Amino acid sequence: MRIIMLGCGGFIGSHLLDRLLDEGGFEIHGWDPSDRKIARHLTNPNFHLHRNTTNSPGELAEIESEIAQADVVFNLAAICNPAEYNTRPLDTIYANLFDIYPIVELCAKYKKWLVSFSTSEVYGRTLSSYLPGDNYSNPDFYELREDETPLIMGPISNQRWTYACAKQMTERLIYAHNQENGMPFTIIRPLNFFGPKMDYIPGRDGSSDGVPRVLACFMTALLDNKPMQLVDGGLAQRTIVSIHDAVDAMRLMLKFPDKAQNQIFNIGNRNNEVNIAELAELMRLTYAKITGDLSYKNHPIVNTTSKQFYGEGYEDCDRRMPDLSKAETLLGWTPTKPLAEVLLETMSYYHQQYASPVQEKVSA
Ligand code: UGA
After folding, report:
1. Taking CB atoms and a 6 Å cutoff, what residues make up the pocket around ligand 1?
2. CA 204 vs CA 13, 207, 210, 216, 361: distances in Å
3. Structural element, H or E, at residue 13
4. pLDDT for res 206
5. DSSP secondary structure string for all residues of 81-100
6. What are phi and psi of 197, to 5 degrees?
7. For residue range 306-357, what is the model confidence (pLDDT) as tens digits?
8. Mutate to test the pocket of ligand 1, among 160, 191, 192 (most ligand atoms within 8 A of CB)
């Protein structure tokens, strides 16, 4: 099977490459300026890396000739970090909509199967969060169902939603090409994939600075002996799924194209729901276990506001509880890894990768 993978050097792409290249039977042409997370595949004769972004001058002609010969095109290229949606709104809109637009057009032209990574953020906030009173007792108001749930976002001045809107427009473009031109597609809406190689640790990964997603923020705090920061009380809820479970779902999509094509899939884990305050607590307990240093159990956790942490225009998704019945019924996929195991694996990786041998602890 001949695969194009745009954004193959990121977190999800690197794990998908691990699975497909280790299994064999796939010829993969990838695009990514960074090879840091995929270094071990660079000498594999079944992998060909183009070290450019898809919007680099002249790159589209090369991509077109590869798409024309491909069986499936994975689109993983994105800006997908909430700290950037309100601080780099134009880059966010361009990367997640306009840079992807020519790729979608090429897939439509050659009628190639486009597997596009979207986001659970297209759902926006739940109906429950807008209704008065406690409406989380009724799943009809908060459960995220791919083909039913309305997509609800805040006002334009809350630029948090630049990402969700750009991704939604890309989904609509893909869907329209399927309906009008018969382009086969699969849209994946990830719900907080966690695993080794996710994001980066500011100050420790080359020149990367800025604010990564919550896992890497809390890991940075533990590694640097700084307090973990809870935004707006840490009340937002997330369901967390292992990257390995998620890659299983992608593998099943390739195995059963007739079931996977022309569908939108939530990929998440209903059993691993926590609020962010609970996640902070679990992470400091897990880090105490990994390091053998019991004082991490009391690692400082402090409160901050979203305005202080992210700046103007941030608004949060309150809860992400996916309906997974489509992935279960069509693909036979069910996630298996409990949160404790996901955190142990992921945090052990970060510890091995980044912890300096001698650390000074802050007093709890
Ligand atoms: C992000 C992306 O926007 C989604 O596209 C993506 O699908 C999703 O991650 C994912 O990983 O699947 P989000 O879950 O909001 O969405 O991103 P995080 O940065 O991980 O934030 C999660 C929660 O933790 C938010 O409530 C945030 O305010 C909070 N947070 C973050 C903290 O309390 N402290 C921190 O140091 C960082």
Report:
1. 80, 82, 119-121, 190-193, 213-214, 217, 229-231, 234, 236, 238, 276, 316-317
2. 21, 8, 12, 11, 18
3. helix 11-23
4. 62
5. -HHHHTTSHHHHHIIIIITT
6. 75, 10
7. 999 999 999 999 999 999 999 999 999 999 999 999 999 999 999 999 997 4
8. 192
Exposed e or buried b for every residue in 156-169, given b needs 16+ CB within 10 A? eeebbbbbbbbbbb
Q: What is the mean pLDDT of residues 118-146?
A: 94
Residue 213 CA to ligand 1 centre (angstroms): 5
How far is residue 163's CA from residue 82's CA, in Å, rounded to a whole number? 8
Beta strands 27-31 and 2-6, pairing class: parallel
- Which of 35, 319, 293 minimizes the C-alpha distance to 192? 319
Active site residue 163: yes
Q: Is the pLDDT of residue 209 over 90?
A: no
* Total residue length of the chain: 364
Per-residue model confidence (pLDDT) at position 360: 44
**Cα–ligand 1 centroid distance for 39 (angstroms):** 27
Number of Cα atoms under 13 Å in the Cβ half of residue 200 = 17
Residues 361 and 293: beta-carbon distance below 8 Å: yes
Domain regions of the chain by residue span: 78-363
pLDDT in tens, 72-113: 999 999 999 999 999 999 999 999 999 999 999 999 999 999
Q: What is the pTM of this model?
A: 0.96
Q: How far is the CA of 200 from the centre of ligand 1 (A)?
A: 14
**Which of 275, 283, 282 shows the shortest CA–CA distance to 221?**
283
Task: Indicate the CATH number of 78-363 among 3.30.70.20, 2.60.40.1190, 3.40.50.720, 1.10.10.60.
Answer: 3.40.50.720
Closest residue by Cα to atom 3, ligand 1, is 82
> Which residue type does 362 have?
V
Residue located nearest, by CA, to atom 17 of ligand 1: 213
- The catalytic residue among 85, 163, 200, 310 is 163
Phi, psi values for residue 231, rounded to 5° = -80, 125
